[in-house]
Structure formats: structure tokens, C-alpha cells
Specification:
308 residues; alpha+beta; 4-stranded antiparallel β-sheet; 6 helices
């Protein structure tokens, strides 16, 4: 744990004046206490500019009092007294290199993150390793194999592990992967709760088609999913689904040519409001998707044209 204070001086032209820091650990009950800062810099125009609390534990996403790691949003729930910190497991979809930047360059933090720095180095070296492997293949065969066309990893952009943990309060780890049965969806995401049953899982299916085709698909989902009913206030059209083991929310956004079906096990989403909240977070990230051109290329009527 690291708490730092930054001071500035000056009335018109403001300049940095001093920094103070406190390093400590939580007690056996997980409670942290920061002592009163007594070594204050002098000067009539000196004032406190910023206080930042950083809490780190290996294999967990670090906590900062000023903003969150992923998605990177300003934090507005920090309190100087009675603050509650919940660390989530570091998911496989997150970057250790970016996490190190998030932690900052304090010497004490660097000393506490040897494994983090090792994994970050492996991430940064991965492109070079891939290039070396391709060169070895060319040397051995005399030819370079054509790269396989990768399926678009779009669903991954819409929902983070931290979203589920923030909305449902579940702090176990998830495995992120595609659904084994994708059906006719353009892309899928399966957040599988480690060590738990399917009722703790969350899944997301994404369809990218013309708005007319998406309307037809949404109507098809309404007929396929018993217990569905319209939902207002989410995207252009939406519906909620309540079944024995899952809660679901489907929504259509014509601007981004996207239809999303989010399903959440009842052990994870204990209320409809939680499933709707997750769907709203996914809807807010549709702008991350590449622009969709509904006009297919002449070679195939089934392949969409996508512009970055």
C-alpha cells in the first residue's frame, strides 16, 4: 500500500513544491490505516494538490483512488474515512505492461512487482517471438504459409471481467473465451466462473448485419426465448428474458449495426436489474466496434465489409 501527497506553491504561476509518501500493509483483517501527515512543507502559498492511494497485491488488479484500471475511468467513490477496497483477480485478457504503467514508478512498488515485470516483458517480446517462428518456418520449408483469416474479436471489446464483479459483487476469477456453440452469431464471449457451475457464468453474443436483418433476428430471438418481454430505455429496441437458470437482455443498436444478447446465470445475476446493468455497460462500448458497411463485396453475399 502506498499513499502519496503532492504539494504546489504559488498564486498566479503554480509550481510543484514537495511530495510526501507513506508505505504500509493491511492488518490480518484486511484493514489499512494511514497516519496523520505531520511533516508538512512550509510557505504561505503552499497547498495540497493531490492525494493518491495505491493498493497492490500479486495476481490482483491494483486499486488507485483516482481512477480505475480497466476500463480506465475516473473513480468517484473514494472516501478518506471508512473507504472500502475490493481487489479483483487479474484476468487473462488484461495487459501486465499496461498494469505496470497504471502502478507508477515508485521504488517501493517496483520492488513489490518482480513477477508483474517478468510477465510484462514476455508480453512485449511476443511479437518478436512470432516473427522469429515465421522466419524459422520459411528457412525449413522454403515457403511461407499464408496466414489464417482470424475471426473478429469484437465481443471481447464490449464486456470486461471487472464489469461483472462491480455489478454483481462476485470476486472470483473468470476464464474468458468464445462460446463453444456460436450459432449464427458474428462473435461471442464466454465469461466462465472458475470452480463454479454454469449458473455463475456470463455470455455475450454479437450479431453484425444490416439494421433490417437485425430487426428480423431480434424478432426471432423473441420467439425462440420463452418469457421474453420488451424493455424500454436501452438502445433502439430491447427485450429481457427470464428463464429457469438464466436472465437475459437483448438489445439492437442500428447506428452501430449491432445486436447483442447478454445472458447471465441466476447465481451471478440475482436480479433482473443486474443483468440490465451489464447490458447497459456493453451498449455504452458499441462505439469501439469498427464501422459496418452493409454492402457486401461482390465475391460473396455472406462476407461483410468492415472498415477500421
Amino acid at each position: 500500500m502506498l499513499c502519496s501527497w503532492s504539494f504546489v506553491r504559488g498564486l498566479g504561476a503554480v509550481a510543484p513544491e514537495a511530495n510526501r509518501a507513506f508505505k504500509g500493509e493491511t492488518d490480518l483483517d484486511g484493514v489499512y490505516r494511514i497516519p496523520e501527515l505531520k511533516d508538512l512543507p512550509g510557505g504561505l502559498s503552499t497547498r495540497l494538490a493531490r492525494t493518491t492511494l495505491l493498493i497492490y497485491h500479486p495476481n490482483y488488479v491494483a486499486y488507485r483512488s483516482d481512477f480505475a484500471f480497466a476500463p480506465r475511468l475516473h473513480r468517484r467513490d473514494f472516501a478518506q474515512r471508512g473507504n472500502v477496497v475490493r481487489l479483483s483477480h487479474f484476468g487473462s485478457e488484461l495487459s501486465h505492461a499496461r498494469h505496470l504503467l497504471f502502478l507508477g514508478g515508485d521504488a517501493g512498488i517496483r520492488g513489490a512487482t518482480p513477477r508483474e515485470r517478468s510477465r510484462a516483458a514476455m508480453e512485449l517480446d511476443q511479437p518478436a517471438l512470432s516473427a522469429t517462428t515465421r522466419s524459422d518456418e520459411v528457412a525449413a520449408t522454403g515457403t511461407e504459409a499464408a496466414p489464417e483469416a482470424a475471426a473478429p474479436a469484437w465481443a471481447e471489446l464490449l464486456l470486461a471481467t471487472e464489469d461483472v464483479q462491480a455489478v454483481t459483487g462476485y470476486h472470483g476469477a473468470f476464464t474468458r473465451q468464445r462460446l463453444a456453440e456460436a450459432g449464427d452469431a458474428t462473435d461471442t464471449l464466454h465469461l466462465q466462473a472458475e470452480g463454479q457451475g454454469e449458473r455463475h457464468d456470463v455470455a455475450l453474443r454479437l450479431w453484425r448485419r444490416s439494421p433490417e436483418d437485425l430487426v428480423a433476428k431480434l424478432e426471432g430471438l423473441r420467439e425462440e426465448l420463452p418469457g421474453s418481454r420488451p424493455l424500454s430505455g436501452l438502445a433502439d429496441r430491447a427485450l429481457v428474458v427470464a428463464q429457469e437458470d438464466i436472465r437475459g437482455v437483448a438489445f439492437l443498436d442500428a447506428e452501430h449495426a449491432a445486436l447483442v444478447l447478454l445472458t447471465c446465470g441466476r447465481a451471478q445475476c440475482r436480479s433482473e436489474a443486474q443483468a440490465v446493468s451489464l447490458a447497459r455497460r456493453a451498449a455504452a462500448r458499441l462505439s469501439r466496434l469498427p464501422r459496418w458497411d452493409a454492402t457486401p463485396p461482390a465475391a460473396s453475399d455472406a462476407t461483410p465489409a468492415v472498415e477500421p
